[in-house]
Amino acid sequence: MALSKHDIAYLEPRLNELDDPIETSSDYARRVQELLPNFPEPVITQWFYDHHQCIGEHAWLDYPSLGFKLVKFGAEFLNLRCLRDHETVVQYRDYFLQGTDSARMNRLAAYIKEKGTWPVPPIIFDNVDGDFVSPWGLRYSKPYDLLEGHHRMAVLYALGKHKQGTHQIWLLHRSGMPVTLGRKRSK
């Protein structure tokens, strides 16, 4: 069941007059989980708290129908064209490789160089069957599409760390549909 406009408004973080949050990320996550118990706290924090402008934009996904699974993937998964050649990731990667001074990307690079992976798992659609198509016709990539974590992915690729070790991601799927993890679903 889709959320009402009132429910969508409830998902917005409480902000002051400067648009800064007036509730902590953990208080916010607990509040949101009252309405969306299917959302893990780290997903709420990085997707809704950090990017609250996306809440209304993605509401068509029917948030109560979504499920999340924290999984690890290695080079084979990260070399999929739908992720490696994602337009925004390529743009940010090239921006970083040109030596452009970005405090955000430099912090990410320092972390990734030290730990070999990103600080927070990105959120990726499991879209093997092409199920995710927006009401305005935007067709999300198959078999996966990056929802959140473009800067992290860009820096990981720029540093070549996608070829080494495993990396956690939040795999988003519609509830009631099995998580495919690279396999075709049976119909």
Give a description of the structure.
By secondary structure, the protein is an alpha+beta fold. The chain folds into two domains: 5-61, no CATH class; 68-174, no CATH class. Helices cover 39% and strands 13% of the residues. The protein has nine helices and four strands. The longest helix has 13 residues, at 103-115. The protein is globular.
Task: Please provide a brief summary of the model.
The protein has 187 residues and is α+β, with helices and mostly antiparallel strands. The protein is built from nine helices and four strands. Helix 7 (87-97) packs across helix 9.
SSE order and pairing:
Layout (H helix, E strand, L loop, with lengths): L4 H7 L13 H11 L5 H9 L4 H4 L8 E8 L1 H4 L2 H4 L2 H11 L5 H13 L7 E4 L17 E5 L1 H9 L8 E8 L13
Parallel strand pairs: 2-4
Antiparallel strand pairs: 1-4, 2-3
